[in-house]
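Backbone geometry tokens:
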Amino acid sequence: METDMPSDRYGCGPDQEIVRLVRALQSLVEGESAIDELVAYGIRAVPALRELLLHGRVVSVPQPRMWAVEALGKIGARKVLIEYLEAPSREMDAQLSFAEEAVRNTAARHLGRWHDDETFAVLLNLCRRRRLPGVIEALAGFERVEAIPCLDRALEDDFCRGAAEEGLRKLGTSARVALLLSAITPLPNASEETPLSLGRRRRVLTLLADMRCSTEDWSVLRDLLHETDAELIARVTRIAAQAAPSNDRAGASEKLVAALERLPWHAVKDAEETLLSMAPESVPAIQAEQRRRAARPPLVRAGDEVLRMLVRLSGKLGAVPRQK
């Protein structure tokens, strides 16, 4: 149960055993075992824990302060967690800042225990100020459409994207319109798109493909076939395999075959599976590129990984009937 204590309750002095236990938290040997004992003291332990969290010395090992956060979360001291997360960052070097970020992430995850409007508003405001994995995880847990813009932009952050993807998947069709818009929106613009924006759009296309797109969705995404990024083309072609009409599937196959040489190794297997799923529309593009590459000098052909893939695909597609 939540413990939102009035300020005068915070002023009461903890007894000596609580002081000892809070000191024990700062020991890597005794710290974790002190959590449950502090939780047993309930609200009486909050002032000492608050003092440690808000004013205690920040060190390069974050576990003691994370244990204090855990104790506060279990006691139900939501206001202390909010106070800590909303407090201005202290001046510190990069190593200490990295350690303190782990504490902030832990505090945000514990704050996510309260699924009410006030907590949601706090988390949303924190996310707008600075994206942290713990904040994104807590926001995603609410499964509210108001969080979609924050979750979408969090896809640009390698540390936050896993939690953001999970949150958007849980929202399912409620996030579809926003994801379609995100997929076709390079930032700051098409000619100066940042690598972070490009990464976001790639991930959005994967989410949309996993959700299974409709013909209407495809009409929004079709122009992405004219992009220059090979991974973006590969991911939008996967959606074409699901939702595009026959003539668009043939055109998408041509674009993907032309992009094979530029794909990173980790995307090649998915591209191969997409081309297989696009048959019979993909067959002409595969065969034409295979003939073109097979006409190269022997030494060039010997090192041509794309040619080997096309030969393998042709073998698998040999039994696929052509459309009349």
